[in-house]
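Figure 2 data, in text form.
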Amino acid sequence: MTVQGIDISNYQRGIDLDKVPFDFMICKATEGTGIVHDTCDGFVQKAKALGKKWGFYHFLNGEDPVKQAEFFVSQTKNYFGNGVPALDYEMYGMVHGSAGAKKFLDRVHELTGIRCAVYMSRSVCTEDDWSAVAKDHPLWVAQYANTERTAYQATPWLPSGGFGAWDECALHQYSSNGRLDGYAGPLDLDIAHLDADGWDRVANPKGLPVPDAKPSGTVPQPQETALELAARVMDGTYGNGDARKEALGGRYDEVQELVNYVLNTSATELADAVIRGQLGSGELRKRVLGGRYAEVQGVVNDRLGASAKKTYTVKSGDTLSGIAAKYGTDYRTLAKANGLANPNVIYPGQVLVVG
């Protein structure tokens, strides 16, 4: 049996879950050692009131993974045993590798007795040795057929084969451009290969009594999304150094990390984020990207068919050298043409310029 759901965060601030169809909802709770998403508990309490299954996740960043685990638990301890916890392993957090992710996961288990699901792109499953993690933690994999708008899919595209150390995935995020009744913007869509009882077994494998899922810790009350605040930073509204820290207060780490990501990431990767809907649209996107807007938007336009360049969509198992051989070139040329800082890192669904 499978069930359909969404994963959401501050980016979906204001979504009315009464109006959006879903069997389960997973929301971002924390990031690093100081960021709490104030939208999380509202999403959780609404899902509970609707009788829906729910989960909550931590976005791993570059800080000490053990301290991040302790922060995650301190802010969400009453959620454990009620909803499915997950670790989001991507972007900044990948600096730790699977060994660092395991440190996070082990510490959460020490503190709660619960094992987290682990979210990652399918390509990441084979870029590191996850055997020590896979035996205890269910996989939540991201793999998209394309970036086109879509409603829920009963059988989303997921090529056959394993997932590195995992034989199967428990959850599959198959779109970042989902469109559902009741919400005007893009949504991440997921399918869970679990029934209601299976979901509960992941959330509370020992079936122990648990406290009511009330928020723990001090939750800040920001008035704007991280994207909006990052746009203001790029505009110069918040100044630099200590002046920026004071202006952003408890949101500083979250916003500055996003600004650093925009400033230091390749245009190709930023284009991926744009297409996934992670960097806003229209005027907001221009402000967030600042001086990099023309560069990144050019890549986006190329990928979406605004140029005559020949492209190739990466499939599971592809390597850059193998793709290069198909098109009579070498991997260094493709890496340069696509702004790839690391030619060993490509992922299914990524669109590469090949001619």
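Caption note: The chain is about 35% helix and 15% strand.
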